[in-house]
Amino acid sequence: MNRLYYFLLPLLALSCIGKHKSDAPKVIINPTVEHSVEIEADTLIMNLEKSKIEWVATEMGGTKRRTGIISFKNGLFLGKEGEIVGGNFTVDMETMDVTDVPTHEKVARKNLLDHLKGNDFFNVSHYPISTLELTKVQKTKNDSLKITGNLTIREVTKNIDFFAYHKNGAFRTTFTFNRLDWNIAYEGSWADKTLVDKDVELTIEITTE
Q1: CA separation for the pair 209, 206 (Å, rounded)
Q2: Averaged pLDDT of the chain
Q3: How many CB atoms lie within 10 A of CB 43?
Q4: Cys-Cys with 206: which of 51, 60, 153, 191 at CB 3.0–4.6 Å?
């Protein structure tokens, strides 16, 4: 057997494995908005215990699925006449955890979390918080919203559009973003960089007090 066979065999094997692909819409990146317009509105404080962020990432072209959670540090909505008109949220990156690795596999969990929290990706010790500032909220239909906001990760800020659902004090959205747009990149070889796919899916659920 020649070397080409040994090179192609793993690729053929991977092509036979079921792939994980997110159906969540990708955010649209806009020109940066430096400051949101000041709005006179009521303050709706979020319930930290009932609010959460779930993340999903894939490896090697979607052949392996990784899942986890992150907790908010604080946050609030601005409300006017029963509608959301703004908001500001801070995420505690130190709380990042994985849910696809069993709790009894302590070494595997530690290695994965150290990798994610390290300089290869989120560099949590240097960038301990991420933020989302809602700069514009438009009601589209029924309980659906089009949100424009500044998402800051690793001190990189991008103004994005995404869609959300809001009813009876509960806010929910699911979207994907390209981690490379926020400099969340592994600094290894070309092969290492392609092991973790670029799209990250977030599901954000927020309940107010």
Answers
A1: 10
A2: 84
A3: 11
A4: 51
Buried b / exposed e over 96-135, threshold 16 CB at 10 Å, is: bbbeebeeeeeeebeebbeebbeebbbbbeebeebbbbbb
Walk me through the domains of the chain, giving residue ranges and CATH numbers: 17-207 (2.40.128.110)
CA dihedral 95, 100, 102, 107 (to 10 degrees): -70
